[in-house]
């Protein structure tokens, strides 16, 4: 049997304001959800602490002056229990590379990657021994998948694909990363230190 089938993740990369992010967290209310840091202790945070962590990450990039000696990050595992379903999401910051005079810039634009596995592992056994396959997560965790769709749909309605121009030896070439940002983020980032430093321009 094909073990590769249904492997991988459903993904959404986005960057929204802390106020917009707070609205996303509200979608988890009244659901059995945890937010855990990916440290050795798997420290648990409540929604308020998660939002504070996102604020710190956002403000670092939206500021007009870069804070030296700081490396912001936002990384959480999000276990979810819906009725009898145990599954969960993963959220972490990523960097968006862009060219600067013929090479990659030393800084990267920010975004958050929200992911949900496509496969549900099923352990099996036959005459040759034990093995496993990945079956469609939507069949085994339909409620959790529905929540993922609700969250990503909520974000998509409030964002647009990020399009911006970066300085290039030939011309100001349009960059098209797989990231969605909101209108308010466009305004904040247009005056940020990273856009000023590299002469970036958002295309609306």
Description:
With 204 residues, the chain is of the alpha+beta class. 29% of the residues lie in helices and 37% in strands. It contains six helices and 16 strands. The strands form four sheets. Strands 1, 2, 3, 4, 5, 6, 9, 12 and 15 form a nine-stranded mixed sheet that branches. A three-stranded antiparallel sheet has the order 14-13-16, with no helix packed on it. α1 packs antiparallel against α2. The longest helix is centred in the N-terminal third of the chain and has 16 residues. The N and C termini lie far apart (47 Å).
SS element count, helices: 6
Order of helices and strands: EHEEEHEEEEEEEHHEEEEHHE
Overall mean pLDDT stands at 90
- Percent helix, as a range, is 25-40%
Shape summary: globular
**Alpha-carbon Rg, integer:** 20 Å
Structural class: alpha+beta
**What gap, in angstroms, lies between the N and C termini?**
47 Å
**Residue fraction in strands:** 35-45%
Model regions low in confidence, pLDDT < 50 over at least 5 residues: none
Number of strands: 16
Major sheet description: 9 strands, mixed
Could you write a compact summary of the structure shown?
This protein has 204 residues and is of the alpha+beta class. The chain has helices at residues 18-26, 47-62, 137-140, 142-157, 183-190, 193-198, and strands at 9-15, 32-33, 35-37, 44-45, 75-82, 85-96, 99-100, 103-104, 109-117, 119-126, 129-136, 160-161, 164-166, 173-175, 180-181, 201-202. The radius of gyration is 20 Å and the shape is globular.
């Amino acid at each position: 049997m094909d073990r590769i089938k249904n492997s991988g993740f459903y993904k959404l990369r986005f960057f929204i304001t802390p106020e917009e992010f707070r609205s996303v967290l509200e979608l988890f209310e009244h659901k059995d959800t945890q937010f855990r840091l990916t440290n050795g202790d798997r420290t648990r945070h409540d929604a308020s602490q998660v939002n504070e962590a996102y604020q710190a990450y956002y403000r670092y990039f939206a500021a007009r002056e870069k804070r030296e000696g700081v490396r912001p990050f936002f990384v959480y595992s999000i276990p979810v229990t819906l009725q009898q379903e145990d599954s969960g999401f993963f959220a972490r910051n990523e960097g968006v590379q862009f060219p600067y005079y013929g090479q990659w810039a030393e800084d990267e634009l920010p975004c958050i990657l929200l992911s949900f596995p496509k496969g549900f592992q099923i352990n099996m056994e036959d005459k040759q021994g034990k093995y496993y396959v990945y079956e469609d997560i939507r069949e085994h965790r339909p409620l959790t998948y529905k929540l993922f769709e609700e969250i990503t749909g909520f974000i998509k309605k409030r964002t647009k694909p990020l399009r911006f121009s970066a300085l290039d030896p030939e011309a100001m070439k349009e960059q098209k990363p797989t990231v969605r940002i909101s209108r308010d983020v466009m305004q904040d980032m247009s005056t940020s230190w990273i856009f000023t430093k590299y002469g970036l321009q958002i295309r609306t």
